[in-house]
Specification:
There is one protein chain. The protein is α/β, with parallel strands linked by helices and 289 residues long. It has a single domain (45-286), classed as Rossmann fold, CATH 3.40.50. It has nine helices and eleven strands. Helix 5 crosses helix 6, helix 6 packs across helix 7 (157-168) and helix 8 packs parallel to helix 9. The two termini are 38 Å apart.
Length: 289
């Protein structure tokens, strides 16, 4: 049979009454719309950033954490983006880089040239690093891998290089080995992100507050981070550390436990609200999960 049937099947009883029917996919789509769970396809970088931080990142465990956050009373006000805590001894640095890479690739301007007006601002990814854990060659490699994966139809390396430049220009590394630097950086970020209006941005902090022992300085840094989240209403925040930060408890909308399945294995388990997700790590970053 050469023809592919894609429509619904009209059913009719002998009495002449006609039944209405639909495909299972159409039913699912209709149900999701009715529940308000299906958003329109993003038409510009701003909407793509909103969609990424509130619905779909492409990483199952992170999407589950976002879904849980959206039901949290801490995130409901003004539909504020989540404030996530990633806890683990290994793999968290690579996870944060992978999230940043996927974000800038999915929000690049060239994807929306036909429908997007020029804007002075574009979605940004801010990576805060307490112990210089981020590797620049690794970051570049992961961004390129995410880009090539999405641009499988493009064979011209010059075009990919231009896209790479655009993506990398929207990732900012801030080294905050000193807590006073972190406090100043957070204050500056709050002012800058607030000036960008409704555009959602990522703020990802690896080794949150590092080994800060001074309680007063630590609380001030947390206060500034809280002000950034509440004051801008456009910052998706994710902090990574080896253990739970009780001082952040009132802000956290969802917690993610990240564990390596076996020593020297590239498989990890991400636990979100009692649900386990298998995550694969590689040289190209976080590949699944």
């Amino acid at each position: 049979m050469n023809d592919t049937f894609t429509g619904t099947i009209p059913l009719q009883k002998s009495s002449g009454k006609r039944y209405w029917s639909e495909t299972a996919f159409n039913w699912l789509e209709r149900s999701q719309r009715r529940a308000g769970k299906l958003s329109e396809e993003p038409s510009d970088p701003t909407k793509a950033a909103w969609n990424f931080t509130r619905e779909s990142t492409g990483f199952d465990f992170l999407d589950e954490a976002i879904k849980a956050s959206m039901h949290s009373t801490r995130a409901k006000h003004g539909n504020r983006p989540p404030f996530l805590e990633l806890i683990g001894k290994d793999g968290t640095t690579l996870a944060l880089i992978s999230v940043a890479a996927r974000f800038v690739v999915s929000t690049r301007r060239s994807k929306f040239l036909s429908t997007s007006p020029e804007s002075p601002f574009q979605p940004q990814a801010i990576l805060m690093d307490s112990f210089h854990s981020f590797s620049m060659p690794q970051l570049v490699r992961i961004v390129r891998s995410a880009l090539v994966l999405e641009m499988t139809h493009v064979r011209d390396t010059a075009i990919i290089d231009l896209e790479m430049e655009e993506c990398l220009n929207r990732i900012h590394l801030i080294f905050v080995s000193d807590v006073t630097v972190a406090i100043a950086a957070l204050e500056a970020l709050r002012v800058k992100l607030k000036s960008m209006g409704p555009i959602t941005n990522l703020v990802l902090w690896d080794e949150f507050l590092g080994k800060v022992s001074d309680t007063a300085s630590k609380m001030e840094a947390i206060r500034q981070l809280t002000r950034l989240w509440h004051g801008t209403n456009n910052a998706f925040i994710m902090v990574a550390s080896h253990r739970h930060n009780t001082s952040l408890a009132k802000n956290i909308t969802c917690q993610i436990i990240f564990e390596q399945k076996r020593k020297e294995s590239n498989l990890y388990l991400a636990k979100v609200c009692g649900v386990e997700f298998v995550v694969t790590m590689g040289t190209a970053g976080m590949l699944s999960g």
